[in-house]
Structure to design on (1045 residues):
């Protein structure tokens, strides 16, 4: 089922991901990073629960653990010494806190990429790259066309080669590499030669004339504009407070975080709302559906 | 984590001029098709050799396209192959780094070899370049990336640890690049030249 | 008014020995449906490529081509791109982008149309061609026929005046080809667009065109409407490529300029012709091969690609007799190719057993290939690796002794001696196929398996292929092929089988097989079945009619 986030205009999705990625990588503030982590996981779960949990256990949790362990091993700054490593270096409380924070941050980046890969489908990426690089965006479209075509031909080649006794399922590794190289050569020859006809077809259809335009299958709606404006305003407020120093964090030499107050709470709240925007949108739409159905 | 952000921004800025230059000169149909074909072949190559562990022919193919078609095509093939293969296997924080490392490899291969390449004279040079590029360019860049990704701290020790622990993997990768270059550079470059003739480039 | 006027066009390829086009004069009228045909290599494709400057091949050229009264080279590229549409042979290689909608918009983008205009045009085209159901699909999900329709639609989106088609249906199965031609006819009739089509498969396209141009060795040898064409080329060797009813009825002395061109007209003619004649006693020449050993046996074979996928083979049973030419017929998507791969051991069935020479395929392992089974892939380029044919072929020699002699023998057998030093990709499709066949035969197989060997080829190459098959059969090689080329199978096969829904529905020797079917049979049989139910080829019908 298509969720509401997928229906956003690619530009809105892009702004969302850039802001979240940017802010979460820019600062490792416990509250900000925590908010990112929670919203990234919620978003992942809502988008594709089964696959997300699979990835979470196979990839993300190990990455988080590595992130947590690595820092104390290499960083020995900080004033609260807990223990000494055999080589004489200290293990400090600050480096452990830092490690945990960086683990959480790595986790949130990975989970954000999970949603990114699900949401930013090929036509969306092509649209976005096409805004600045129209030709490269066309190349991407063509690569996406060629890969399945080449894969099909590859299977043909593998079968044909196998049938003349040059398969790549040989037991001998040397023969295996040799036969695989032959397959590569056959594939490359075919691909290069067939490219001539492709470029003919492009030129026959007027590629290369001056003033090429670009067809955009997405329509920007009022909703998208409101979303983008809202995200940019909240994002700027958060970044501003990070830069000016209303919100800060020190890990070394000792852990220190900005004092909380009315203004800071507002910024936290704004960031939370912004990072949860897609989640709210999806949930709201589902609620609307349910209420519509129950009325019938 | 500032370092990661800053370095990614620098990487993107350093690739930008090349990409914009390519856009600005309005490439012809045959160039676009050929780059797309090279990228697709590079991405597909991964699945031809998947049953031979550690054998990754992508870099070798990028080097070959740099030699055969010049630095610009080499750079674009490298950058886009990294991007497109991550498209299939999933993008991640490593994507810009991979794009940069592979693009740089293709670019250098083109700058160094494309002008005066003959198989008889340059085959060993190319193989040596393959080793250097795999270990010193691709390996070092990707190891740097993982340090910046995982720790966010820039300490000499962390970098050294990453580079040293990366040596075995990088060496195996280099070996596969060399084997591939040794076995295929002659025929692949010849095929590219034939296509160039056909296109009258 | 003429759309194209070609005056004294002469052209020679840089490496060519002869003129590809020799003093060609041709006028194409507006709103015409023009068919250009001829033997392969007669220059028909070269001619139509010259009608579009972007595709004109390089070489020595003299003579003029006018488009709407102006020299073609003076017509701006933009106008050419807009007004002259060109559809190529292979459905795959002309598609540029990955999505159907993007492909439809591609030409419009190139011409710089605004988004709002493109949106309307794309919607229009999708509705007109019935694409809306697969509008959002990836191109990779489409069938060959759909791809070709997409190509036509994306050309039509820029609203051309003329469309030029280069053997657009040669890679399609019969049903998809007819669907495509029907669309083309509709475009021609409803929109008044000039259509120039090159084809070698005349059966379907011949009756629907206004004018036919026949070429031979770079020259136009005939130009006129259907009946004139039949009259003009009656004595030419190309007459053999004419639709079956035309061939039979001409041989039976149909009145000049009133020769039947389709099966229905043919039946009416035959009715008059046979009136009052005594029908001979039913006789069917049964294939005498029963009792030979089976070299391949498949019993109750089940196969599917994914665990959760649908079954592609559902209890397939097939026996291939040693030393016979067995053809498996069937439409697209009935599992023919899957069946072939299963018989070669390339795919493993999850139930049932395939035995080759009495030994289970699973136990053969890699020993099956070379010496036992050889498979010619549908696409011969799947075997070309080197830069010239000789090197490429010699790669397949099993033991080095007498290598040169073996290559010489095989190249004489397959008639490729003259092209041994060429690059495989510089050859024509037929030559490529024979070179690939040489590679396969050099592995000295006992069983030769072919996947659609006649797809996209004209009658002359098919006959050559049949001759090769005969020689191979004489050498004791068993041949198994899948095809949807009914005419070819009827003429040359020993045994036929019909593949449907993942199994073999009917099988038997040729005459038995075809006379048993009433739709899925040759047009000769459809035409004459009331009188000669056992005659399946045009030759047989002709002979029987004359002798009665």
């Amino acid at each position: 089922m298509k969720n509401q986030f997928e229906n956003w205009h690619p530009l809105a999705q892009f702004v969302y991901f850039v802001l979240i990625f940017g802010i979460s990588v820019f600062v490792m503030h416990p509250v900000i990073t925590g908010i990112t982590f929670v919203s990234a996981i919620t978003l992942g779960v809502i988008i594709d629960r089964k696959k997300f949990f699979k990835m979470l256990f196979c990839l993300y949790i190990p990455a988080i653990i590595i992130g947590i362990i690595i820092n104390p091993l290499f960083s020995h700054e900080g004033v609260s010494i807990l223990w000494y490593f055999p080589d004489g270096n200290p293990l400090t409380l600050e480096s452990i806190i830092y490690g945990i924070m960086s683990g959480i941050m790595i986790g949130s980046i990975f989970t954000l990429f999970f949603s990114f890969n699900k949401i930013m489908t090929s036509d969306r990426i092509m649209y976005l790259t096409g805004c600045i690089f129209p030709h490269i965006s066309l190349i991407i479209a063509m690569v996406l066309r060629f890969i399945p075509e080449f894969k099909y031909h590859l299977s043909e080649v593998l079968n044909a080669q196998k049938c003349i006794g040059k398969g790549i399922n040989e037991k001998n590794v040397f023969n295996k590499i040799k036969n695989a190289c032959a397959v590569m050569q056959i594939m490359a020859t075919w691909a290069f030669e067939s490219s001539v006809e492709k470029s003919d077809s492009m030129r026959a259809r007027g590629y290369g004339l001056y003033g090429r335009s670009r067809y955009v299958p997405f329509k920007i709606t009022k909703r998208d504009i409101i979303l983008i404006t809202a995200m940019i305003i909240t994002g700027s407020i958060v970044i501003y407070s990070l830069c000016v120093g209303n919100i800060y964090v020190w890990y070394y030499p000792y852990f220190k975080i900005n004092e909380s107050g009315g203004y800071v709470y507002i910024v936290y709240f704004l960031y939370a709302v912004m990072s949860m925007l897609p989640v709210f949108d999806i949930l709201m739409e589902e609620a609307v559906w349910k209420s519509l159905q129950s009325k019938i | 984590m500032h370092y990661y952000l800053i370095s990614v921004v620098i990487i993107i800025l350093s690739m930008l001029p090349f990409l914009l230059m390519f856009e600005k000169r309005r490439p012809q149909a045959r160039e676009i098709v050929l780059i797309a074909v090279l990228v697709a072949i590079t991405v597909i190559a991964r699945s031809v050799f998947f049953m031979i562990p550690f054998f990754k022919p992508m870099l070798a193919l990028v080097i070959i396209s740099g030699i055969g078609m010049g630095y610009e095509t080499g750079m674009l093939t490298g950058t886009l192959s990294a991007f497109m293969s991550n498209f299939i296997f999933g993008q991640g924080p490593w994507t810009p780094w991979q794009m940069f490392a592979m693009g740089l490899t293709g670019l250098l291969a083109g700058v160094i070899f494309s002008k005066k390449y003959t198989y008889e004279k340059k085959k060993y040079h190319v193989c040596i370049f393959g080793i250097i590029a795999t270990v010193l360019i691709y390996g070092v860049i990707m190891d740097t990336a993982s340090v910046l990704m995982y720790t966010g701290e820039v300490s000499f020790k962390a970098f050294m640890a990453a580079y040293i622990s990366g040596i075995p993997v990088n060496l195996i990768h280099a070996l596969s690049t060399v084997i591939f270059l040794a076995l295929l550079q002659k025929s692949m470059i010849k095929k590219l030249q034939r296509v160039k003739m056909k296109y009258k480039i | 008014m003429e759309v194209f006027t070609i005056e004294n066009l002469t052209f020679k390829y840089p490496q060519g020995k002869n003129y590809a086009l020799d003093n060609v004069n041709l006028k194409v009228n507006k709103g015409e449906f023009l068919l250009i045909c001829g033997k392969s290599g007669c220059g028909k494709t070269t001619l139509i490529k010259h009608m579009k400057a972007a595709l004109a091949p390089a070489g020595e050229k003299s003579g003029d081509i006018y488009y709407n009264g102006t020299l073609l080279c003076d017509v701006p590229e933009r106008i050419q791109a807009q007004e002259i549409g060109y559809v190529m042979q292979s459905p795959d290689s002309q598609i540029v982008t990955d999505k159907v909608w993007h492909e439809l918009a591609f030409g419009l983008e190139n011409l710089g149309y605004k988004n709002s205009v493109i949106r309307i045009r794309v919607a229009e085209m999708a509705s007109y061609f019935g694409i809306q159901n697969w509008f959002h699909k990836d191109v990779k999900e489409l069938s060959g026929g759909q791809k070709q329709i997409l190509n036509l639609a994306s050309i039509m989106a820029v609203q051309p005046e003329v469309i030029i088609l280069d053997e657009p249906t040669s890679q399609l199965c019969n049903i998809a080809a007819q669907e495509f031609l029907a669309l083309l006819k509709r475009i021609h009739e409803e929109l008044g667009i000039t259509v120039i089509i090159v084809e070698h498969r005349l059966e379907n396209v011949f009756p629907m065109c206004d004018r036919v141009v026949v070429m031979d060795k770079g020259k136009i040898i005939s130009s006129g409407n259907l009946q004139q064409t039949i009259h003009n080329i009656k004595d030419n060797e190309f007459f053999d490529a004419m639709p079956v009813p035309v061939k039979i009825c001409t041989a039976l002395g149909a009145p000049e300029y009133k020769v039947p061109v389709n099966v229905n007209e043919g039946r009416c003619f035959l009715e008059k012709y046979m009136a009052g004649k005594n029908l001979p006693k039913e006789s069917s020449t049964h294939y005498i091969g029963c009792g030979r050993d089976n070299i391949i046996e498949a019993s109750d074979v089940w196969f599917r690609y994914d665990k959760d996928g649908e079954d592609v083979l559902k209890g397939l049973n097939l026996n291939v007799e040693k030393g016979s030419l067995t053809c498996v017929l069937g439409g697209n998507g009935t599992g023919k190719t899957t069946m072939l791969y299963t018989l070669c051991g390339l795919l493993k069935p999850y139930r049932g057993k395939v035995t080759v020479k009495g030994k289970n395929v699973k136990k053969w392992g890699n020993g099956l290939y070379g010496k036992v089974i050889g498979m010619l892939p549908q696409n011969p380029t799947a075997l070309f690796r080197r830069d010239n044919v000789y090197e490429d072929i010699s790669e397949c020699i099993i033991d080095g002794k007498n290598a040169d002699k073996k290559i010489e023998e095989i190249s004489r057998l397959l008639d490729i001696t003259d092209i041994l030093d060429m690059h495989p990709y510089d050859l024509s499709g037929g030559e490529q196929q024979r070179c690939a066949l040489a590679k396969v035969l050099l592995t000295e197989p006992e069983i030769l398996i072919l996947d659609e060997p006649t797809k996209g080829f004209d009658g002359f190459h098919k006959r050559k292929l049949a001759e090769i098959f005969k020689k191979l059969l004489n050498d004791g090689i068993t041949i198994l092929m899948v095809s949807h080329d009914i005419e070819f199978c009827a003429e040359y096969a020993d045994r036929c089988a019909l593949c449907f829904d993942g199994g073999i529905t009917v099988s038997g020797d040729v005459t038995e097989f075809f006379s048993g079917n009433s739709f899925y049979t040759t047009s000769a049989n459809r035409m004459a079945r009331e009188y000669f139910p056992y005659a399946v080829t045009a030759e047989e019908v002709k002979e029987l009619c004359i002798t009665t």
Q: What stands out?
A: Chain B touches chain A through 63 residues (CB under 8 Å).
